[in-house]
Design a protein that fits this description.
It is a single chain. By secondary structure, this protein is an alpha/beta fold. The chain has 17 helices and 17 strands. The chain has helices spanning 12-15, 20-25, 36-42, 46-55, 76-79, 93-103, 111-129, 146-160, 176-187, 202-205, 226-238, 302-307, 353-366, 410-417, 445-452, 457-465, 475-488, and strands spanning 137-142, 164-168, 208-212, 248-252, 274-278, 292-296, 321-323, 374-380, 386-392, 395-397, 400-406, 420-427, 432-442, 500-505, 509-514, 522-531, 534-541. The strands form 2 sheets. Strands 8, 9, 10, 11, 12, 13, 14, 15, 16 and 17 form a 10-stranded antiparallel β-sheet that branches. This is NAD(P)H-hydrate epimerase.
Length: 544
């Protein structure tokens, strides 16, 4: 049987990645419930003590619970369940300036480091909401200061994310840092447009307008040409026709022209669709009423968080941005994706559908998709009521597709009553799905036994504990039985296989689906037929 997941290897590179910030904040020896304030007192790392001594006033209990160790991966919306917009810390202009000075002073950050992280955060936030398949043309309007530099960096990352960025940078800063950012964009053939070259109605030529003109340090009234550029962004909302798609506005840190602490004072300013606050949101961001508020700039050290009592949402996984507040309500009927994929033609496919499946499976693995062996298994019992559930493919050979389960589960009962099933694989990142249908039979007892004992011991015990599909009075019952069995087999003795084993579906039909533009999807179906006593597969195209 062909193994589904190739064995990996730990490289020297992966073993030698040491993180300075981890060494400063490591508190694994502390109890899980230790507060951040307490961890500061207990952390004996001399570098940590040096920096925290510089930064902190007398330590006070801090409500956000920073813990040692890695942050678990979770979705942005899940992480924000307890972090609505009102519970997050908002900075005054003075506090924002002090934090920047501290980052670039005793903490050793450079302007270009912070600018790179900020620009990447902006690009990541945009890609979270506005996909390049629908919003490809991006105009970034950059001011002469650091906010403009963030915009230049964001434009570079957006190019690498698959967007088509343009840059309007009317007042260029004559410093090597900014000149280097311009050179980087020019090397990518990203067009620079003067104010005079901008179309009269910028909404016709661009899908996204990035407002990176002025940041939190700006004072006074905008001067030409930025006053006119701001008004052109303001007019987008005034001229928006009902039902007509318009450009969306993304403001970096603070919408240009807004008061940093009081927001859009007279209500005549830019109305961005997205605001990407950096480091922490500024007080003026409380007046933001658009649908998408993100936080970026994942570089706040714990000592700064303690000094300013920052309550910020945790970033999901390795993301450079996190949503503040709840995502907007979505009209489900309006959710759609216009797929962009290479053509999937009859003359390109393998003659044997098993080989074609292996080819697509290998490409799903290479694309780094999560659990590409996950499949929906559909069965029907004698009551003629279908049921579906997700299971994991654990074997593939010329005889078919293999998975394992409890032989007393609902799916097992339905397969005993009607030994026919359908499998469905869906690989979102590749716009592909594969449907397989056919009869099902149990694999040999030896095959089930061998696979059962190849599993982690915890999974073997879990299979005994779980009388799958039966009613249990509570989770505590499962935990208790698990602990008892864990102790029983703590000596490493063989764990007996319960009434549990594998099934093999022998394919009688394959359908390979590839998403395409305007719903003109590719659907190629394989069905068996005999020619001169030889079993072959016929390939037919189905209407999408």
């Amino acid at each position: 049987m062909r193994p589904l997941v190739p064995k990996g290897r730990i490289t020297r590179r992966s073993m030698t990645c040491l993180c300075f910030t981890h060494s400063l904040t490591q508190t694994h020896s502390l109890p899980r419930a230790t507060t951040f304030s307490s961890s500061l007192h207990h952390n004996r790392n001399p570098l940590f003590q040096f920096f925290s001594g510089i930064l902190r006033s007398p330590i006070r209990n801090f409500s956000t619970n920073f813990r040692g160790g890695p942050t678990p991966v979770a979705s942005s919306s899940a992480l924000m369940a307890d972090f609505d917009a009102d519970s997050v810390t908002y900075l005054t202009q003075r506090e924002a300036a002090e934090i920047d000075e501290t980052l670039m002073g005793p903490l050793g950050f450079s302007v270009d480091q912070l600018m790179e992280l900020a620009g990447l955060s902006v690009a990541a936030s945009i890609s979270e909401v506005y996909k390049p398949s629908e919003y490809s043309r991006v105009l970034t309007i950059c001011g002469p200061g650091n906010n403009g530099g963030d915009g230049l960096v964001a434009a570079r990352h957006l190019h690498h994310f698959g967007y088509k960025p343009f840059v309007c940078y009317p007042k260029r800063t004559p410093k090597p840092l900014y000149a280097g950012l311009v050179t980087q964009l020019e090397a990518l053939s990203i067009p620079f447009l003067s104010v005079e070259e901008l179309p009269s109605d910028i909404s016709n030529d661009f899908d996204i307008l990035v407002d990176a003109m002025f940041g939190f340090s700006f004072h006074g009234s905008p001067r030409p040409p930025f006053d006119d550029l701001i008004q052109r962004l303001v007019s987008l909302h005034d001229n928006n026709a009902i039902g007509q798609k318009r450009s969306v506005i993304v403001s970096v840190d603070i919408p240009s022209g807004w008061h940093v602490e009081e927001g859009d004072v007279d209500g005549t300013g830019i109305k961005p669709d997205m605001l990407v606050s950096l480091t922490a949101p500024k007080l003026g961001a409380k007046k933001f009423v658009g649908p998408h508020h993100f936080l970026g700039g994942r570089f706040v050290p714990p000592a700064i968080a303690e000094k300013y009592k920052l309550i910020l949402p945790p970033y999901p996984g390795a993301s450079m941005c996190v949503r503040i507040g709840k995502p907007p309500r979505i009209d489900i009927s309006a959710l759609r994706e216009n797929y962009i994929s290479p053509e999937f033609l009859e003359e390109q496919v393998e003659a044997d559908p098993i080989n074609q499946f292996r080819k697509w499976f290998d490409e799903a693995m290479a694309a780094g998709l999560k659990e590409p062996n996950a499949m929906a298994l559909s069965t029907v019992g004698k009551d003629a009521k279908p049921s579906s559930r997700m299971v994991l493919l654990k074997g593939l050979d010329n005889d078919g597709f293999v998975w394992y389960t409890n032989y007393e589960s609902r799916k097992a009962r339905e397969l005993s009553e009607n030994p026919q099933a359908s499998l469905l694989f869906y690989w979102d990142g590749l716009n592909r799905q594969v449907r397989v249908e056919g009869p099902v039979q149990k694999v040999s007892e030896e095959e089930s036994e061998q696979y059962f004992h190849s599993r982690p011991r915890g999974s073997q015990i879990g299979a005994i504990v779980s009388k799958q599909s039966s009613v249990v009075p509570g989770r505590h019952v499962l935990y208790q039985e698990y602990k008892e069995l864990e102790q029983k087999y703590a000596d490493g003795s063989l764990i007996p296989k319960p009434n549990w084993g594998g099934y093999r579906l022998t394919p009688q039909l394959f359908e390979f689906w590839q998403g395409q533009k305007s719903r003109l999807h590719d659907r190629l179906q394989y069905t068996p037929h005999e020619i001169n006593g030889q079993r072959l597969w016929k390939v037919e195209r189905l209407a999408p």
